[in-house]
Design a protein that fits this description.
CATH superfamily of the largest domain: Leucine Dehydrogenase, chain A, domain 1
Structural class: alpha/beta
Bound molecules: NADPH dihydro-nicotinamide-adenine-dinucleotide phosphate
Strand content: 15-25%
Helix content: 25-40%
Radius of gyration: 18 Å
Distance between the termini: 31 Å
CATH architecture of the largest domain: 3-Layer(aba) Sandwich
CATH class of the largest domain: Alpha Beta
Number of domains: 2
Number of helices: 10
Order of helices and strands: EHEHEHEHEEHEHEHEEEHEHH
CATH topology of the largest domain: Rossmann fold
Shape: globular
Strand order of the largest sheet: 2-1-3-5-6-4
């Protein structure tokens, strides 16, 4: 069976490696390729249609096409609907496409299973209001936290998400008090920068989680730990978790994520 990930750029994608490790667990043989698509909706639509016309088994979608994939899919999971973005395309028996969004599942799985962090009744702060933040709010809320605050550099984006999900928005400067979990869904760490939040908010924080991942602790992790965060984590486990959820949707097989995270971590350090 053939699978692919559509994106631009895409050469860096770890999805082929992750999905081959899942297939090995299933003792299955799959092909999983990277598909570079010109950055426009028409090119994306043509590439997706061609892939599924040639019996593609399923596809992942990454930047900058997650919203295009939402528009293209005829059916959407509630998670995709809430996110307004699709990272997983599943072919239906009638030839239509179902769009799902597994980013939030990946995050929740990493938090609750790999990091043993129970979300129920916790105070959660989500930093960022881009595509990644939007995709994880519903799955996090389904875990019944006691408090959920979103904050973003451009406050109007946080306010829009707060209105959609009935949560509270604050500006970075307004943030105060204690949070059990602080999630960095900004792309600051990509360029080594940290959102300009008051450092005191990490005091008493049980876990500071950065969706970005790298061989070394991210800029956010390096900021959170000395300011009081008891534990820090990057987002490698989320990456593998969202891939595992996609794999299960396509093949009805739930891969173990821990050995795959370990293999990728080893490769990052090589
Ligand atoms: P978007 O471009 O959609 O959103 C970027 C967000 O980061 C916006 O909220 C933006 O704020 C904010 N931002 C950017 N730079 C800064 C800064 N210097 N200080 C404060 N805020 C900043 O990106 P995504 O939502 O797609 O991705 C966000 C992060 O999540 C990336 O690091 C990405 O790698 C990671 N990610 C990880 C995944 C995983 O599986 N581990 C999956 C998906 C994403 P503003 O609105 O003000 O511009």
């Amino acid at each position: 069976m053939n699978y692919t990930v559509f994106g631009n750029p895409i050469a860096h994608s770890k999805s082929p490696k992750i999905h081959q490790l899942f297939a090995a667990q299933e003792h299955a043989t799959i092909e999983y390729t990277r598909t570079l698509v010109d950055d426009n909706p028409q090119a994306f639509q043509a590439a997706v249609q061609q892939f599924f016309a040639q019996n593609g088994g399923g596809a992942n979608v990454t930047l900058p096409f997650k919203q295009h994939a939402y528009a293209l899919a005829q059916h959407h999971s509630p998670r995709a609907q809430a996110a307004g973005a699709v990272n997983t395309l599943i072919s239906q028996a009638d030839g239509t496409l179902l769009g799902d969004n597994t980013d939030g599942l990946g995050l929740v799985q990493d938090l609750t299973q790999n990091l043993q962090f129970s979300l129920k009744d916790k105070r959660i702060l989500l930093l960022g209001a881009g595509g990644a933040a939007r995709g994880v709010i519903l799955p996090l809320l389904e875990c019944q936290p006691a408090q959920f605050i979103i904050a973003n550099r451009s406050p109007e984006k946080a306010q829009a998400l707060a209105a959609q999900f009935h949560i509270q928005a604050q500006t970075f400067a307004e943030l105060s008090g204690c949070f059990d979990l602080i999630i960095n869904a900004t792309s600051g760490s990509v360029s080594g920068s940290v959102p300009e939040v008051p450092p005191q908010i990490f005091s008493g924080c049980q876990l500071a989680y950065d969706m970005f991942y790298s061989a070394q602790p991210t800029a956010f992790m390096q900021f959170a730990a000395p300011n009081g965060a008891a534990h820090t984590s990057d987002g490698l486990g989320m990456l593998v978790g969202q891939a595992a959820a996609s794999y299960q949707l396509w093949r009805n097989f739930a891969p173990q994520t821990a050995p795959v995270i370990a293999a990728l971590r080893k490769e990052l350090h090589a």
